[in-house]
Specification:
Strand order of the largest sheet: 3-4-2-1-7-9-10-8
Bound molecules: adenosine-5'-diphosphate, aspartic acid, magnesium ion
Number of helices: 14
Strand content: 15-25%
Structural class: alpha/beta
Radius of gyration: 24 Å
Order of helices and strands: HEHEHHHHEHEEEHEEHEEEHEEHHEHEEH
Helix content: 25-40%
Number of strands: 16
Amino acid sequence: MSRAASIVPEVHKFGGASLATAEAMAHAVSIVLAHRPGPMVVVVSALAGVTDALLDIAASRGDVRGLRRKHLGVARALFTGARRKDLIRFVDEAFDELKVPRKLTPGTTDDILARGEQLSARLFAAALEQAGCPVEYVSAVDLIVTDDTFGQASADLAGTERAVRKTLGRLLARGVVTVVPGFIGATPDGQITTLGRGGSDLTATLLARALRAREVSLWKDVPGVLTADPRVVPDAHVVPQLHVREAAELAYYGAKVLHPRALIPLGKRNIAVRIRPFANPDSKGTEISQRRTLRGHPVKALSAIPAQALLTVTGNGMLGVPGIAARTFEAVHRAGVSVSLISQASSEHSICFSVPSGSAARARKSLRETFRREIDRGEIDGVEMQAGVAAIAIVGLGMAATPGIAARAFTALSDAGINVVAIAQGSSELNLSVVVDGREGAAAQRALHAAFHLQLAKG
Ligand code: ADP
Ligand code: ASP
Ligand code: MG
């Protein structure tokens, strides 16, 4: 094996929520320096609020001048001398070039969004250089190979691995810290793509996989993964350790702290992800790994997907008729809608599932077209829609071996006067999901949080 290929770096990602000001960027630089001289790859998100601002600009209602000022402010505060001049010119050029095409496509939108990460990573690399650290900015376009699903691209793991090892291997061997913009990739023919909101987490795990890293640190504005969303459950606590499957389930079910696809590149590889507090670099945060710990805590955390609609296909004609479920989901797929949760009554009398509120009407129309004949004949009653619901997931590997979890959940909800609209349980019993009226979503999370005494950090 070549020397370059045998170097195993740490991967550190700094999230946008943490990078709000020039001081914050300087603090991130100090975290990187504290981890030197070991080999390191640094992934950087756009500064706080920048991706949202760029989306507004793409929609022609954004404030380009304000965004330019924000980046110039950071450049002026962080740098001195010739470096300062260079960076001010770099920021100015990036905004001079920023033209919104008259006809916006997902591809041109990605091109605009990519600038947030390109700018912050350039600033970050320059700040490390100014601190005397050997550093190189590497464009994500040369590393992360994706398909052409603009706005939500999937990485080609093998292609990415080849590109990453070729480009970063040599730099790591020379002891250079590489700084890579998160969130961005490119198709094999070089068109810029983005990996979906929050995608810098995924960039970090893709790089970790390719470089066989043993640890990825995701520096966030929270103390770790908490037992629930702290904006909804104020007394949520840090979970010291999560199994990869538990974390994946929480991320999939709406825990914003981790991109829903960020754990996919890890596969069965022994790579630990740490969610670490930016404000407190000495704290351990949350470890996400293949270990199974905290057996005394069958439920580790809750997460919630708000703004869902429940669609139900019901009718006697569904009894024992093969292919109804396949046709149902085919119809939803054809409408380009993704299903977040499925629950089927054992009588096969109904199939019920939730979809994002904004796409529910489209899904219902497609279902009605698919089942028009059955509806006309009265075999299927129709497609009911209940909008404005929230799906809450109760997650923990220990649930499978612990009786009474569902009973506790439903008692807590009924004691709080909250009606359960639908239930789903994964066959792995890793996740029990309840659907409630969206207006009661926050109260339901607080009631469930209290019922399971989710206070892991306090023990
Ligand atoms: P980044 O800066 O890396 O992009 P995010 O803003 O995407 O970080 O994720 C951190 C945010 O996730 C927190 O500020 C918090 O409001 C939210 N969050 C939601 N659920 C949880 C949870 N269970 N644990 C921690 N944070 C959570
Ligand atoms: N800047 C992007 C976003 O806001 C990606 C990220 O932060 O991870 O979604
Ligand atoms: Mg994020």
